[in-house]
Design brief:
The complex is a heterodimer.
Chain A: E1 15-16, E2 19-20, E3 22-23, H1 34-47, H2 57-76, E4 85-88, H3 91-106, E5 112-116, H4 125-134, E6 137-141, H5 151-157, E7 162-168, H6 180-189, E8 194-197, H7 209-212, E9 216-220, E10 231-235, H8 237-242, E11 253-256, E12 261-263, H9 277-293, H10 295-314, E13 319-321, E14 331-336, H11 341-350, E15 353-354, E16 356-358, H12 363-368, E17 374-378, H13 385-401
Parallel strand pairs in A: 3-15, 5-6, 5-7, 7-8, 8-9
Antiparallel strand pairs in A: 1-2, 4-10, 9-10, 11-12, 13-14, 14-17, 16-17
Helix pairs in contact in A: 1-9, 2-9, 3-4, 10-13, 11-13
Chain B: H1 2-7, H2 10-17, E1 30-36, E2 41-50, E3 53-62, H3 65-78, H4 83-99, H5 122-137
Antiparallel strand pairs in B: 1-2, 2-3
Helix pairs in contact in B: 2-3, 3-5, 4-5
The chains are: A alpha/beta, B alpha+beta.
């Protein structure tokens, strides 16, 4: 069973080391469907121009496509207003934007910022930088042995000093789907705003920011079958309007004199410089593709792969899964006794199988589970049970090499 | 799987499973740390010197097969050698794994010739050696080959 044909993704028909590519590194980045590649090519071949300023025909067409993609992004995450969609380089830049713009205006000495123990470095370091600058403190919600947030501890850590809660919707290293709705409800009862890092969630689960009730939501285009270098920050309109700009330059201004600059309205206030136009258009095409398949179908498909993959991996002697939450996305992080993840990765690569090995930009998670690194297979909408069988066979080969 | 067999030679697997000179020297004359956090490799290297000669050398830590075996075989190769000889050996080893230089006169270290086919693994094979260099030079910073 698969819901997207390999034929729709040109790279999937290539060979790696003489073997058909089996791409299981989707949590790092996804492969791109032909329609995304075509949309980018078509942009350059037919309407390439700068947006929002030209009076000429091409600029009009490019601006229309660019803003249409903003509407698509809004619809994709259930945002009530397309003006709430700020195009950024990726989830990392989105979080930095909030930390630098909202954070510097609202966080002071003695305040606390609450994150979790399963965050990607990109949802740790921007807050650390802010804390250092302001004399604030970073607090961390602990996780249990299954890799789930301990919600009782979260409630204890949420105090009058907490200025913002920033948590991952889905963990990249463990696959855990966090109960963000409940976290948001709890935080909002105390009037604390919540940023959700949706980098790993957007490709796997239906996101509805209105239903979630969060204040900021960040995701990356390249993890949802779109181009690299483009992502989305969603924020509630009044919050974005009240925030100071993040970067200065063209596009984000209405008028400039040497005495005074009048900033543009949101979202343009946060989009200084000529934007990543082809990235935005490619992202629009990717979101169309995922929407047409439907996130319910994607989730059902990935649940099947997760179940089948879990069973396949647990049949390998000496293999331990890192991250066994009840609610999981299709991510399998694992270690094999006596074999370093890096060696597993090299041997699988010889079989044409691409997985990720290392700390997955989540060193605190590795420390929590007492491993220096893990191997990680993460599935996307084009993966199949047959590919998981190949993974299982290759892992047996790994054990033979090290027997 | 021939490239793979070249990479994971018996001698490498043997030293990975049973590393030699594994441990920490009490009151060492020289000490350095090597850390490749992206891979999750981390070693401490301690040396006992007699004048300019590496009298004793031990390593401790955890890493992949290539980095662990490299550290283990390195300790065997440099033990009892003057510093200049150990450094010359590193140069030769480095040339072999990075640009396919000759493996002659390298003894067991020649087992790492196959690493050249896996450019991403060169940093694994050379971590212990860079750490040794830092220990000999008395560098305080943790070494990384990433």
């Amino acid at each position: 069973m698969k819901i997207a044909s390999h034929d729709d993704f040109p790279i999937l028909s290539t060979k790696v080391r003489g073997k058909p590519l089996i791409y299981l590194d989707n949590a790092a980045t996804t492969q791109k469907p032909r329609r995304v590649i075509d949309a980018i090519r078509s942009y350059y071949e037919t309407i390439n121009s700068n947006v929002h300023r030209g009076v000429h025909h091409l600029s009009e067409l490019a601006t229309k496509e660019y803003e249409l993609a903003r509407t698509k992004a809004a619809r994709f995450i259930g945002a009530p207003d397309a003006r709430e969609i700020v195009f950024v380089r990726g989830a990392t830049e989105a979080i930095n934007l909030v930390a630098q713009s909202w954070g510097r205006a609202h966080v002071g000495a003695g305040d606390e910022i609450l994150i979790s123990a399963m965050e990607h470095h990109s949802n740790i370091v921007p807050w650390q930088m802010l804390c250092q600058e302001k004399g604030a403190t970073l607090r961390v919600i602990p996780i249990n042995d299954a890799g789930e947030l301990i919600l009782e501890e979260f409630e204890k850590l949420l105090t009058a000093r907490t200025k913002i809660v920033a948590v991952a919707h889905v963990s990249n290293a463990l696959g855990t789907i966090n109960p963000v709705k409940r976290i948001i409800e709890t935080a909002k009862r105390r009037g604390v705003p919540v940023l959700v890092d949706g980098a790993q969630a957007a490709p796997h689960v239906k996101v509805d920011v209105r239903d979630l009730g969060c204040d900021f939501y960040a995701f990356s285009g390249h993890k949802v079958y779109g181009p690299t270098g483009i992502g989305v920050l969603w924020g509630r309109l009044p919050l974005l309007e009240a925030m100071p700009p993040y970067q200065g330059g063209g596009e984000m201004i209405l008028s400039v004199t040497f005495e005074k600059t009048v900033y543009n309205k949101v979202p343009h206030k946060f989009e200084a410089g000529t934007p990543h136009i082809e990235g935005v258009i490619g992202l629009g095409a990717a979101l169309d593709a995922v929407t047409e398949i439907g996130l319910d179908a994607v989730a059902a498909h990935e649940r099947d792969l997760l179940e089948y993959g879990t069973k396949t991996l647990l049949a390998i002697p000496g293999l331990r899964l890192i991250g066994t939450a009840r609610e999981k996305a299709a991510v399998l992080s694992f270690v094999i006794e006596g074999i370093h993840p890096h060696d597993i990765g090299t041997i699988l690569d010889q079989e044409g199988i691409a997985i990720r090995t290392g700390h997955h930009c989540a060193q605190p998670v590795m420390e929590r589970f007492g491993v220096p690194a893990t191997a990680r297979a993460s599935f996307g909408l084009y993966n199949t049970r047959a590919e998981i069988d190949a993974l299982g066979a290759a892992l047996r080969k790994v054990r033979e090499v090290f027997a | 799987m021939s490239e793979l067999d070249d990479l994971y030679q018996e001698v490498i697997l043997d030293h990975y499973k049973r590393p030699r000179n594994f441990g920490v020297i009490d009151a060492p004359d020289r000490r350095a740390e090597g850390d490749n956090p992206l891979c999750g490799d981390r070693f401490i290297l301690t040396l006992k010197m007699r004048g300019d000669v590496i009298e004793e050398v031990r390593f401790k830590g955890a890493g992949c097969a290539i980095s662990t075996a490299s550290a283990s075989i390195m300790t065997e190769s440099v033990k009892g050698r003057p510093r200049a000889e150990a450094e010359a050996l590193f140069d030769k080893f480095h040339t072999m794994v990075t640009s396919g230089g000759a493996a002659e006169d390298l003894g067991k270290l020649a087992a790492f010739a196959g690493v050249g086919e896996f450019p991403i693994r060169v940093k694994c094979a050379t971590l212990a050696w860079h750490t040794l260099k830092a220990a000999l030079e008395g560098t305080q910073d943790t070494v990384s080959t990433e």
